[in-house]
């Protein structure tokens, strides 16, 4: 009830934020882009930090390949969707499944989004 009075009785639009202090700092670095792009970058960085050092996830985020400047060593769209998932273990489970199936990026993004919205 208290939140409704703060918003003058209107529901807040859009996705509920899942942003930590680290992600807010990452957003500040990219101030020249749109807020949506800032969010995507922040979520992508979160997932990248969780997965880049594990060779099991090298299809999505190949840390050594990225450092060496290797082409196609990461999937930024998939990482942005994975970063939106709050549970670290769930991120790893879903990333493992994506790495096994190696779907098209749009198909992987859609599957992750559907899973996340069902669980939310």
Tell me what the structure shows.
With 120 residues, the chain is mostly helical. The protein has seven helices and no strands. The longest helix has 17 residues, at 35-51. It is globular, with a radius of gyration of 16 Å.
Q: Which keywords apply here?
A:
120 residues, mainly alpha, 7 helices
SSE inventory with pairings:
Blueprint: H1 2-6, H2 21-29, H3 35-51, H4 63-67, H5 76-83, H6 88-101, H7 105-119
Helix pairs in contact: 2-3, 3-5, 5-7
Total count of helical runs of at least 4 residues: 7
Number of strands: 0
Specify the structural class: mainly alpha
Kindly provide the radius of gyration, computed on alpha-carbon positions and rounded to a whole number of angstroms. 16 Å
Terminal CA distance: 21 Å
């Amino acid at each position: 009830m208290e939140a409704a009075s703060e918003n003058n009785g209107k529901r807040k639009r859009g996705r509920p934020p899942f942003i930590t202090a680290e992600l807010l700092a990452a957003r500040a670095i990219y101030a020249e882009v749109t807020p949506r792009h800032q969010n995507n970058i922040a979520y992508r960085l979160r997932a990248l930090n969780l997965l880049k050092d594990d060779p099991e996830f090298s299809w999505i985020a190949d840390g050594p390949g990225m450092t060496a400047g290797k082409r196609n060593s990461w999937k930024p769209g998939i990482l942005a969707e994975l970063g939106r998932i709050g549970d670290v273990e769930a991120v790893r489970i879903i990333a493992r499944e994506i790495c096994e199936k190696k779907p098209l990026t749009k198909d992987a993004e859609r599957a992750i989004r559907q899973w996340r919205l069902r669980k939310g």
